[in-house]
Design goal:
The complex is a heterodimer of chains A (about 325) and B (about 270). With about 325 residues, chain A is mostly helical. Chain A has helices at about 5-35, 40-55, 65-85, 90-110, 110-115, 135-150, 160-180, 185-195, 195-200, 205-230, 240-255, 260-275, 290-310, 320-325. In chain A, helix 2 runs parallel beside helix 4. The radius of gyration of chain A is 20 Å and the shape is globular. Chain B folds into two domains: about 5-90 and about 170-265, Rossmann fold, CATH 3.40.50.300; about 95-155, no CATH class. In chain B, the strands form two sheets. Chain B has a six-stranded mixed beta sheet with strand order 6-7-8-3-9-10, sandwiched between helices. A four-stranded antiparallel beta sheet of chain B has the order 2-1-4-5, with helices on one face. In chain B, strand 1 and strand 2 form a beta hairpin. In chain B, helix 5 (about 120-140) crosses helix 6 (about 155-170). Classes of the chains: A mainly alpha (about 325), B alpha/beta (about 270). Chains A and B meet through helix 8, helix 9 and helix 14 of A and helix 2 and helix 5 of B.
Chain lengths: ~325, ~270
């Protein structure tokens, strides 16, 4: 019960929700707006996190350079994936991206010299030489925390400072993407989602627009990945499980398919349901063994999501009229 | 109308897994004319449309538009050259508003480029205002102003045809290819649309090339008619000439089981 009232714990949950929000915003642009069924979104998160970690530890780069190059690398891979799949029918994209994400995960497991293998980034310089790529960031964060505390006269913890930073990023991205989606550029993306041939017949280079959506989405996934890696000071192949992509889908469905603004809200609900149930240690949960509790937690999360969807099938910010048009 | 050809199709053949959809089909459309393409269902008219506009590639043969060879160009490039088409099965963008459907058709819109959105945001906004005004005029012309803000998916079949027609015109095409533009549209509006087509042809020199089963409409507005049957072009000429062509009458009689004009309608 103690954790339930612990600010630090909820700050942590909030950070994770923010990371989910950034991750899901990319997916919303790709799937919700453009109609691209990307089932390998997590791969770009992994590419982002690993590229940054490797560049900091093996390449001796600063956090900023490493982060920038990590995002560029993810964009590059998105462009390549797009080049080979976007001319094909939509279902091929789904198959190719899920295969790609598994390839990335398996490479992370097996390319020990590059990724540290199954134990993750702690082994980046070989086993036994534990490494930490977050140290420079933590120094920055600590400085910012102290300045915030003196500025406001309140006691800011490291986690609260991080929470603030992450949600600032979420806010900026949400505003930016909303503006983009409402522009004529966004109108072309939606047109592609509705009927690509109609857009082609009107002179739109749909291939290029789909590539852009894929690349921007990948950049957002990479950004989420590197924030995730920094927050947890560690990244491993387990963080590139396909399940995470589907968490992204749960978030955009709950927020409302096609709604940029709804996405962070979906992420908060999902994040709090998922992480928030982790420490349900009061009765009746406390009567169970911890593995049982873990399973029960997933069941509860699932049931709550089903409940929300039954009440609001269009999601929080989705439009009910649009749902009716699908039939 | 000049005698200069605007669109020339030369010996185009296309085979779909065992079915010869087109067999050395050749035709031409004069600049500034209203030209129609008729023929029984399954004659290959829509396939020919798909090939001309780059949605399908021909097995052999080639296509010239405005003196330029366009065979093998991607569909969007052909559209940008000024050849805009509509579809037999309407392709309205259901979850976009009716007015957005029209605005989408605007050509070379700076707001549609990310780089321009960032570096010249004003250019995009100015263009968008101009485009929206034009879209409203178009809606009035096509009697769609009452549904401007509605989702296009809520429109009736006839309204969708109108929207597609209007959207094609929004793109300011030099040549506009309409696949059964009058299907599902009431007779009064049909007459108005045909009148508008003639007016546009005369005032802007725009070329119209359309497939239509409404024979009285075809006969009344066409400068030239091409007739297809079983993947071949079987006849060509002015309405009077085509009407009396025995091969045309036979083609339609041979396809009597499907919907098509009766002998009386042709005569």
């Amino acid at each position: 019960m103690d954790t339930f009232f612990n600010v630090e714990f909820w700050a942590f949950v909030g950070i994770v929700a923010g990371i989910y929000a950034i991750f899901a915003l990319g997916l919303q642009l790709q799937f919700g707006i453009t109609g691209l069924a990307n089932f390998g979104h997590v791969a770009f998160m992994g590419i982002g996190a690993y590229t940054m970690a490797i560049l900091i530890i093996q390449g001796d780069q600063s956090v900023w350079i490493a982060a920038l190059l990590a995002i560029i690398t993810a964009i590059f891979f998105a462009a390549v994936i797009g080049l080979v799949t976007l001319r094909l029918r939509a279902d091929y994209l789904a198959i190719t991206t899920i295969a790609f994400s598994e390839i990335v995960r398996l490479l992370a497991v097996n390319l020990r010299w590059l990724t540290g293998g199954p134990e993750g980034t702690t082994n980046l310089l070989g086993t036994g030489k534990a490494t930490n790529f977050s140290a420079p960031w933590m120094v920055l964060l600590g400085g910012l925390r102290d300045r915030l505390s003196t500025l406001t006269g309140l006691e800011f913890s490291t986690n609260l400072t991080m929470l603030l930073i992450v949600w600032m990023v979420v806010l900026i991205l949400t505003v930016l993407l909303s503006l983009m989606v409402r522009s004529p550029w966004g109108r072309v993306l939606k047109a592609i989602r509705e009927d690509e041939d109609a857009a082609r017949a009107l002179g739109k280079n749909t291939f290029w627009y789909k590539s852009q959506a894929l690349m921007i989405g990948a950049a957002l996934a990479a950004l989420a990945g590197l924030i995730y890696a920094i927050q947890f000071t560690y990244f491993s192949p387990q963080d590139v499980e396909p399940l995470l992509t589907f968490f992204g889908y749960v978030i955009i469905i709950m927020g409302g398919i096609g709604s940029i603004v709804g996405t962070p809200f979906g992420a908060v609900i999902f994040g709090f349901l998922f992480a928030g149930t982790r420490f349900f240690d009061f009765p009746p949960f406390s009567l169970l063994q911890s593995p049982e509790r873990a399973s029960l937690r997933l069941i509860i999360v699932g049931a709550l999501i089903v409940g929300i969807m039954a009440l609001r099938p269009q999601g929080l910010f989705g439009k009910k009229e649009e749902l009716a048009l699908d039939q | 109308m000049t005698s200069e050809p605007h669109l020339v199709v030369t010996e185009v053949s296309k085979r779909f897994s065992g079915v010869q959809a087109l067999e050395r089909a050749s035709l031409s459309v004069r600049r500034g004319s209203i030209t129609s393409l008729i023929g029984p269902n399954g004659a290959g008219k829509s396939t020919l449309f798909d090939i001309i506009t780059g949605f399908e590639s021909p097995d052999s043969g080639h296509i010239e538009f405005g003196g330029r060879r366009i065979t093998g160009l991607p569909a969007y490039r052909i559209a940008r050259l000024g050849l805009i088409r509509t579809f037999q099965m309407t392709k309205v963008l259901t979850k976009l508003s009716v007015i957005d459907n029209l605005c989408l058709a605007a050509k070379s819109h700076p707001g549609e480029r990310l780089s321009d959105l960032i570096w010249r945001p004003k250019a995009g906004r100015t263009t968008e205002r101009r485009v929206a005004r034009k879209a409203e005029e178009m809606l009035a012309l096509f009697r769609l102003e009452a549904v401007a803000g509605d989702y296009a998916g809520t429109l009736s079949g006839g309204q969708r045809k109108l929207l597609e027609f209007a959207r094609a015109l929004m793109a300011e095409p030099e040549l506009i290819m309409l696949d059964e533009p009058l299907a599902g549209i009431n007779p009064t509006l049909r007459r108005e649309l045909l009148g508008y087509m003639q007016q546009l042809r005369d005032s802007t020199g725009r070329t119209f090339f359309f497939v239509e089963h409404d024979m009285s409409a075809v006969m009344s507005v066409s400068d030239q008619i091409w007739v297809m049957s079983n993947g071949r072009v079987i006849a060509e000429g002015a309405p009077m000439v085509v009407r009396q062509n025995q091969a045309v009458v036979d083609a339609y009689l041979g396809a009597r089981r499907g919907p098509g004009p009766t002998l009386q309608e042709l005569r």
